[in-house]
C-alpha cells in the first residue's frame, strides 16, 4: 500500500473497522468467525463506536478475511492492523485504544500472515 497522494480525494471516513462475518459449515476444519460470535461483536461495536463519538469511523461486516482459525478477526484501515476479539471488553479496547487514541492493543494483535 502506498502513501496517499495530494491529488487523492479526502477520506470519507478516518477509519474502517472490518469484522469478519463469514460463515462456514459446522465442523469445517478452519472454523468461522460467525460461529465464534463475530456478528454479535460487530453489532456491539457499531453501537459502542457511536457512544464513544467515533463518527468518522465505519464498522463494516466483511466476508472471509481468510484468517478464521484465528478469529473472530477484525482489520482496521487505513493502518491495516489485524486483531482477534472474542468479547466486548476486547472490542472496547480496540475501539478506545486503537481507533480513538491511535495506539495499538498488542495483546490482541494477530501475528503476520
Descriptive report:
The chain is α+β, with helices and mostly antiparallel strands and 113 residues long. It has one domain (21-104): Glutaredoxin, CATH 3.40.30.10. 24% of the residues lie in helices and 19% in strands. The protein has two helices and four strands, in the order E-H-E-E-E-H. It has helices at residues 38-51, 88-100, and strands at 15-20, 57-62, 73-77, 81-84. It has a four-stranded mixed β-sheet with strand order 2-1-3-4, with helices on one face. The longest helix has 14 residues, at 38-51. It is globular. It starts with 14 loop residues before the first strand and ends in a 13-residue tail after the last helix. The model has no long low-confidence stretch (mean pLDDT 91).
Determine and state the CATH class: Alpha Beta
Q: Report strand order across the widest sheet.
A: 2-1-3-4
Mean pLDDT: 91
Annotated CATH topology: Glutaredoxin
Strands, total number: 4
Strand content: 15-25%
Radius of gyration (CA) equals 14 Å
Alpha plus pi helix count: 2
How many domains? 1
The biggest sheet amounts to: 4 strands, mixed
Helix content: 10-25%
Task: State the end-to-end CA separation.
Answer: 16 Å
Structural class: alpha+beta
